[in-house]
Design a protein that fits this description.
The protein is an alpha/beta fold. Helices cover 34% and strands 17% of the residues. It contains 4 helices and 9 strands. The protein has helices at 2-31, 58-63, 99-110, 122-128, and strands at residues 38-39, 51-54, 70-71, 91-94, 116-119, 133-135, 138-140, 142-144, 158-160. The strands form 3 sheets. A 5-stranded parallel sheet has the order 1-5-4-2-3. A hairpin with a 2-residue loop joins β6 (133-135) and β7 (138-140). It is globular, with a radius of gyration of 17 Å.
Length: 161
């Protein structure tokens, strides 16, 4: 009886986790344009000279961001934010899930940047996959959840609004 209950619990938890993952993948599929390239978190290890651009608002960035990321914003973004970056340089843009960063990435491509990628799933997926985020004091568990509606996709870390 205990063995069956444990198996049922395991199946329920794994189905819930898989279901949320499938729902998140479906959400992203609806947000991302097919012709805009994405890069997965684990792929960044093979891109050591990529410039990371955080396209969230400053309040989100200050809570946490990817190590070495440059804040460029979304509502306040201008091309002046990327002065000094070679148009040949690989650039990875990210936000909470990837919608805002894709918009900024399209602006970069239109301006002639050749190697622009969107971080698949944004900072939410990054953290959910166990990768670290940082603030001015160092590594942190805090992540800006954007809003309570969007924050449901963040499964790890301490949500801050």
């Amino acid at each position: 009886m205990k063995k069956n209950l444990a198996l049922l619990l395991l199946l329920t938890v794994s189905t819930m986790a898989w279901g949320q993952s499938l729902a998140y993948k479906t959400l992203l599929k609806g947000v991302y344009e097919k012709d805009f390239p994405v890069v997965n978190p684990q792929d960044l290890e093979g891109m050591p000279d990529a410039v990371l651009l955080d396209t969230r608002e400053i309040e989100e960035f200050e809570i946490s961001h990817l190590k070495g990321a440059n804040w460029v914003g979304y509502d306040t973004f201008t091309m002046d934010s990327v002065n000094g970056i070679s148009k040949e340089q690989p650039i990875v843009v990210y936000c909470s899930i990837g919608a805002r960063s894709q918009d900024i990435g399209k602006k970069l491509k239109k301006a002639g940047f050749k190697n622009v990628y969107n971080l698949y799933g944004g900072v939410f997926h990054w953290v959910n996959e166990g990768f670290p985020v940082y603030n001015k004091e160092g590594e942190t568990s805090k992540v800006h959840g954007y809003s309570r509606t969007w924050g449901i996709w963040l499964n790890r870390g301490e949500k801050v609004y």
